[in-house]
Amino acid sequence: MTAMDARSRESPNAPNAPNAPNAPNAPNAPNAPNAPNAPNAPGTVARPKTVYIPDMSDHVVAVTGAMRHHGIPSKVLPPSNEQTLAIGLDLCRGRECLPCFLSTGDMIRECRQDTFDRENAIFLMPASLGPCRFGQYRILQRMLLDAEGFEDVEILSPTSENSYRGFGERPTPLRLLAWTGVVAVDLLLKLRYEFRPYELEPGATDAAYGRGLRIIEDATSAGGGRHLLRALDAIVADFAALPVDRSSPRPVVAMLGEIYVMLNQHSNQGLIRQLEAAGAEVVTGTLSEWFHFADETKMDRDVLFGSWLGLLGTKSLSAYQRMTERRMHARVGRLLRQPADPPMRKLMEMARPYFDPLLGTETLLSVSKVVHYAANGVSGVVNVMPFSCMPGIVVTGLAGRLRQDLGLLPWLDINFDGQRITNIRTRLEAFIHQVTQFARSRGHIA
To answer: Is the pTM of this model over 0.90?
Structure first.
């Protein structure tokens, strides 16, 4: 069973479950819309609309679980494929990036289904501030939905401007619950990537991973908190029982870069499995670090513009998150060889010699994680990005200085534009040869 098979694809409109975790008393985001609950027509009984969620990564189980707990019906869009890419390429203008092509194609494909209930549908498309085109996706997609005759289909866009506390009748608890589920999936992914290269029974790690996704979704639906901690305990017990052989450690490669391409297997053409097949063990960035990054950049803006009440609310939210994340990592940490990430502010400061933290963007995350991972035994970096991605291009430009300061750390940039990369296997084999030589020279492997 694949991880995709393991997911519950649709969330019914269930009532709130008991035992929700205690959240800090942070103020709700201003002007946050209520849960999707508009009436179908005058004189009819209102019923909640279904929120359609893009299948960017397996973290989607945390979002559906949190929405179910808060009584918001949701459905995960089918995974991106060549059909959705073709739709996106046909409708977009050619200046967009791969994640925009895919997410747009996913929306339009769903709208064209005979069973699609357009009057009760809302597409979730988060946004962010800054120069990245991600913040403009929803604007283009609104135009394209209108042009295709789907004017009545709404788009819901929580934004990093308020740390994604932007929808539902209780925006902050919903955001916190989704975030704790995201952390759990991040920890599960770390286990998967540390165990799979050494498994003695092919497929056993992926099977345990699929079971873990189901447990996390159920625990998030139940309200997180102690349910999620017990879920992590069950996952740890499952992975601890897997037969593995680590007598010949592999060199560790960090796959970093633009978050969508880094996490979405269709976008990166299954790059992690390809790196493992070439002989590496892989670590990646996480989705939860993006939430921390959004919090820190919001606090910087609050200080800059004197929004002291907003600063206090975000600080309390961030403190709660760090405390909760430490508790969750403590349940899993004994099985992980890579240490937990440092606090985001400290991580951001690691990039300062190369990139001022005030400039923001994903460049800051990528550069800081390179420095962090290099200090913890990583022997190579793969920087992934959509074709023409500005933050990715900046990271590529900084790579020379980073490599020089990190002992000529092997580095590979890979751009993805939706076309199959025909020479990827040859490039990876040459890269892993360099990585292996570097790891041996540093005593990371025998």
So the answer is: no
